[in-house]
Amino acid sequence: MRQIFLDTETTGLYPAHGHRIIEIAAIEMVNRRPTNNHRHVYLNPEREIDPAAQEVHGITLEFLQDKPLFAAIAADMMDFIRDAELIIHNAPFDVGFLNSELGRIGLQPIETICSKITDTLKMAKDSRPGQRNNLDALCKHFGIDNSKRTLHGALLDAELLAEVYMAMTRGQDSLLMDLAQTLPDVVQSIEIGHERNLKVLKADEAELAAHNEYIKSLAKAGASNW
């Protein structure tokens, strides 16, 4: 099972208003184990960054001036994501921006590239209704160190998301381990049962008489549907 934990930073909140992606990070995990394989890029958005957005991530337009355009990194990023389960916190936000960027250069939506999109914000809301479920709140809930997260950053947030997801789904590991440990014993038991010639012991007269007395006592007590 191949999973990609993805996060983006943007110039603002709404791709429909012309806002763009300025940072993307994608971290790979295979069979619930990190592979140390990842992608992380800053992008030139070719537009101003909203002051409110800059307060969140701290990325300036001056810093991005010499960075590549999305079109230059799109093929590599999509190849990295291809056929994997994409795991994102508040997936509609990031997916909306990714699809906007892909549409600008004539590429298909992200849903046609990855095998599945999982929204960890929805997962958290389902399991923790009525509580704060942003990344910081979930890190606190699961005891994950997020002290380096003074500002939002795509790479750090993707790394924290992977830890949060593992904590949220830890029960899946226990179930798989139990099945892995139990199944060989069950199979072995079945195989042994087939190989043995079991001896059938018939009840003797005393046991039959005791059984008949027990049935009579049930009938007297009115237990006719035993």
Could you please describe the fold and organization of this structure?
The protein has about 230 residues and is an alpha/beta fold. The chain folds into two domains: about 1-175, Nucleotidyltransferase, domain 5; about 185-220. The protein is built from nine helices and five strands, in the order βββαααβαβααααα. The protein has helices at about 50-55, 60-65, 70-80, 90-105, 120-125, 135-140, 155-170, 170-195, 205-220, and strands at about 1-10, 20-30, 35-40, 85-90, 115-120. A five-stranded mixed β-sheet has the order 3-2-1-4-5, with helices on both faces. The longest helix is centred in the C-terminal third of the chain and has 26 residues, at about 170-195.
How would you summarize this macromolecular structure in one to three sentences?
This protein is of the alpha/beta class and 226 residues long.
